[in-house]
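Pasting as-is:
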Amino acid sequence: MENIAIFEQIKSFIAEKCEIKEYILTKETSLKDIDIYGDDAAELVYLFAIKFNIDIDNIDLREYNLGPEPLDFITPILSFLKGESRNLKPSLTLGDLEKIVLRNFPHLA
């Protein structure tokens, strides 16, 4: 894997898996921006780990706000009733995915 090509490979992978045009993807594009939430986001990251030969245990998805499942209307209501604050974790971006690759292959940085 060449350093220059890493992000282009990530863009290509995401575009293929999500069936979207590659040119709209930037390092700032979050999975939420392309309508990937909850379990779908976790599955995409799992496939990403396989594609880029990264140990899935090295990716802590709890650090990111992956959003609720698309048809999950109950969780936000329960959170509101419990007085829980909004999820202030950052959304997972393609730039974050690039950092994960570079963290696992430091010789490419």
